[in-house]
Amino acid sequence: MYRSEDHRTFAAPSENGVEGPGEQTAADVWARVKRRLRAELGEDIFASWFGRLELDSVVEGCAYLTVPTRFLKSWIESHYADRVLAVYRSETGDVDRVSIGVRNTLGRDPAAGRRAAEAPRPAPAASMAMPSIAGEMKSAATAAPLEERGENSDLGGAPLDTRLTFDSFIVGRSNALAHAAADRVAHAQNGQAIYNPLYLHAGVGLGKTHLLHAIGHAVRAQGRRVIYLTADRFMYGFVASLKAQTSLAFKERLRGIDLLIIDDVQFIQGKQIQQEFGHTLNALIDAGRQIVIAADRPPADLENLDERVRSRLAGGLVVEVSALDEALRTSILTTRIEALKTIHPTFDVGPNVIAYVARAITANGRDLEGAVNRLLAHATLTGSAITLETAETAIRDLVRNREPKRVKIEDIQKLVASRYNVSRSDILSERRTAAVVRPRQIAMYLSKVLTLRSLPEIGRRFGGRDHTTVLHAVRKIEKALGEDHALSDEVELLKRMLQE
Ligand SMILES: Nc1ncnc2c1ncn2[C@@H]1O[C@H](COP(=O)(O)OP(=O)(O)OP(=O)(O)O)[C@@H](O)[C@H]1O
C-alpha cells in the first residue's frame, strides 16, 4: 500500500524556489532528470538505485517520487537525496523539494498514483536516517493482507500475488528458456531440487518477479513450504532476529522450508548479512532444498557480494530473460486487453493501435501494463473509440527518451513495399498498375515528410523520376489523407515504424 506518512521531503533553500508553469510537462522534465542522473552516476549505480524510481506528481513545488520498496526509499534518501534534488533544480524552476514514497507493487493498482497525489502532504523532515529495523518489520507484517500471513510473515516473507501465475505468463523468444527452467523447478518430481539455485536475471520489468511468483504458487499448490522474500525482507528478517535474540535464529527457521525464493538479490548489502545469506544458501542447497533467485544482473556482476556467495549463486543454472521482443509485447498487450474486455465489454482496441503500442513501448512489461490502463481510462472516460491519435496522447509519458531517428529513403521503400506486398524494384520501376502506383506515391510522400531530401533528390532515388512526379505524388497523398481515415491511420503507423 502507498504510505503517505512515509514520505520525507527534502527542501531546498527557499531563495531559488521559483514557481510557475513551464512549457514542458513534468514527465519531460523527469525524463531529463533521469538521463542526467544516469550520465552523472554511471549505468551501474543508476540501474541499481534509480531504475525503479518513478515520478508520481509535482504538486506545489514538490516532486513526489516513488519506489517499489522501503529499502530503496531509505537508500536513496540517505545516499542520493541531495543529488536528485540538485539535478531536478538544475532542470526546472518548478521543483524545490523532492519526496520519496513507497508505491504499491504487489497490488499493481492503477489508482495508486492518483491516491498518492491526493494524499495529505507531510511536513518536511530534517532527519534522513534509515528507519529502525524493528519499525520495518512491524510495517512489513501489517502491510500484508490478513489471509496472506501465516508461515510467510513469521519469517518476514512477502505474499504471492495471485495474478502472477504460469497461466498468465506469456512465453516468447526472449523468455522461453527462463520459463522452461522455472516450469521444471516448479514441477520437479517428488519436489527434488534441480538447477540449484536457479538464478534468473533481467532488466527492470521483464517478468522475473512474475516467474518467481508463478513458481511459488505452483510449489505451494503441491503442499510444500515456500518462502518468498525480497532482498530487503531477507535483511530485515535477519537483523530483526538478531536484535530480538530469538531462540531459533532466522536462518534456522528458513532451513525448515522446501523452496526459498529471493527477489532482487542485488540489494543484499552488508558483510555480516551477506555471510549469513551465504550460510543459508549453503545449508539449504546441502539439504537438497530448492532455491530460486532473481536479480537485475548475472552473478559475476554482483560486485558488492562476497566472492564465495557469488560463485555459489553461479553454481546452478543461470538464465537471462532478454528484452521483450515485439511479438511478445504484442501478445502481452492482446492478452491483457482481452482480459479487460470481460469486465469492460465496450473496451475495444484495434490491431493497428496494438501494433503501435507494441512498437512504441519497448522498455518493459510494466510499461505495457501502464499503457493498457491508460487506454482503458481513456476509453471509459470519453466513451469514444481508441484511435492511433488518442493512443499516442494517452501513452505519451511512457514513450521515453525517443530521439527522432534519421530515416533513410531506402528504408522507406523497403517498409512500404513489404507492407503492400510488392517488391522494392516494383516501386522503382516504370510499372503503372494501381497495386504499385499507390505504394510508390506513399513512399514518395513519406520520403518528403521524414527526410530532408529535396524533391529532385527523391525523384532520383525513385528510379530517376522528375521532381514534378514526386510533387504530384506528395499532393495526391496529402489530399487522400484528409479524406480517408483508414489510409491516414495506415500512413501514421508507417511513419512510427520508420521512426522507431
Ligand atoms: N511474459 C510475460 N507475460 C505476461 N506478463 C508479463 C510478462 N513479462 C512481464 N510481464 C508483466 O510485466 C510486469 C512487470 O514484470 P515483473 O514485475 O515480473 O518484472 P521484473 O523483471 O521483476 O522487474 P523488477 O526488476 O522491476 O522487479 C508485470 O505486470 C508482469 O506481469
TrEMBL record:
Which residues of this UniProt protein bind ATP?
A: G205, G207, K208, T209
**Mainly localized where?**
cytoplasm
Region feature (Domain II): 119-158
Region: Disordered, residue numbers: 1-23
Could you tell me which residues belong to the region Domain I, interacts with DnaA modulators? 1-117
UniProt GO molecular function? ATP binding; DNA replication origin binding; lipid binding
The record's SMART domains line, in alphabetical order, gives: AAA, Bac_DnaA_C
Region of interest (Domain IV, binds dsDNA), ranges: 380-500
Keyword entries, A-Z: ATP-binding, Cytoplasm, DNA replication, DNA-binding, Lipid-binding, Nucleotide-binding
Protein location: Cytoplasm
Read off the HAMAP family from this record.
DnaA_bact
- To which protein family does this belong? Belongs to the DnaA family.
Quaternary structure note? Oligomerizes as a right-handed, spiral filament on DNA at oriC.
- What is the protein's name according to its record? Chromosomal replication initiator protein DnaA
Tell me the gene name.
dnaA
